[in-house]
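Handoff note, outgoing to incoming analyst
You'll be picking up this chain. Sequence as last confirmed:
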Amino acid sequence: QSISAVLGGKLSDIWINSLRDLEKSGCGQVEISVGDRVFDVHASSNADSELMTVHVHDVTHHKAAALEAQRRAYLDSLTGLPTREVFQEHLTQTLALAKRGDRMTAVFIIGLDDFKLINETKGHAVGDKLLQTTAARLSRCLRTSDTVARLGGDEFAIIQPEPSCVDGIAQLAKRLNAALREPVSTPDGDIRPAASIGIAMFPTDAEDADELLHHADIALDRCKVEGGDGHRFFIAEMNAEVQRRRVLENDLRIAIEQEKLQLHYQPKLDLASGCITGMEALVRWIDPEHGFVSPVEFIPIAESSRLIIPLGDWVLREACKRTKAWNDAGLGPLKVAVNLSAVQFRHPTLLDDLSSALTETGLAPHLLELEITETAAMDNAEQASSVFAGISKLGISLAIDDFGTGYSSLSYLKNFPVHRIKIDKAFVDDIGQGPKGSAIARAVTTLGHSFDMEVTAEGVETAEQMVYLRGIQCHEVQGYLISKPLPPDDFSTFMEDFDTALYCPANTQTDFDWSAQRRKWQRGSVSDFKALA
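Most recent structure output, in case you need it:
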């Protein structure tokens, strides 16, 4: 086929000039672009004549494929943002310029809160849309001199060269948080995302790209641990904390897999009868290397790493199995309360897991109570309503833990099948502390009565608190006045030796011998027990 035929007519000046240059140079090959088409041209001169032999190949399709492959290598296919590799290369160049000019540079790492859960519950299509929306929102918040990239998964990163000041960096972080928490529409309704942001600065926090990113990532982890939906600047002390956290996370994973954790049980006293009618199951971790690790430390690690799912499943099954054994042995009837974290509450297999645990252990559903904080319950009221209905259908009762410390919305008490509310220890501690010290405990108890719910007071440590709570008709109490949380064998002994008469009133509340019961059951001081709680 002739060149003229390929081009659809007479050779243009572009072709003639290119072929002449090719002949003069003697290189024999050139690439020529005409309109939106690209040609690979090979030419050779004939020594016996003035003619030139030219071979032309239309390589438009191959060039387009090569450009697309290059684009994919440098840009994320889902969001269109630069990839991690491009970002790191650009950060290295930015820091080199900043070093020569003695200027500051800030790096932000942004991680979406609960993205894995959204993917699991809403589907990957919704997750992809959220990532695309996040990319667009981040881009809109930035200056033309700033760079945003997707590092992978739900993590994004920003380079802010030459920020005006630290306050300016914080202001940008606040704008990013505000933009990212705007609702995102999905076929199943709006979702309300949130993000955690970690920030590190050159040259104060690090002097090279890898270390700067590492420190921003540490700050991001701290933000997530503290609840997310905010930003944190890196500080040097975070390094040691992060290292301990990572070691604990790894060791906790091993402890869960090998079932090295323990459950302790804190008795719950019915104030009307003076009987122990149930207990709360509390997980304890005593590690050969770390010693006693407080739940205050390892439960947040379990939640952020999603180890809370296998941990919570083990706690549920172990508590059900133990309760069934105690009831079969004649120590009951005892009802066990198990705490449910927000992550577990939102997990798609929760109802199946509950049903499976009851079936496998043989525990009657009415002898299991799940405790969830009101903050977790109200985080997504529509979803919570569906989950609560499913739990109630299984015959399991529900309790709102730490009542009064979260949303304090009364709508869920009316609309959700809640069986019990628990007065937080902070309000029990206030009893007897001035004229208003007992007001909240009384108000919560009255509220529970009006909704036909039982009320349990946590953290009861003095006889005075017990007397007051009985006087306002609080149904149930737990705390160190009754007993600290006990290992299974000690709990069995406690139940076998328990003297109901010590807590059952004759005619007046003052007839109780509180001090005798305290001496009999409390081993060590209250402060000692607090250290282990």
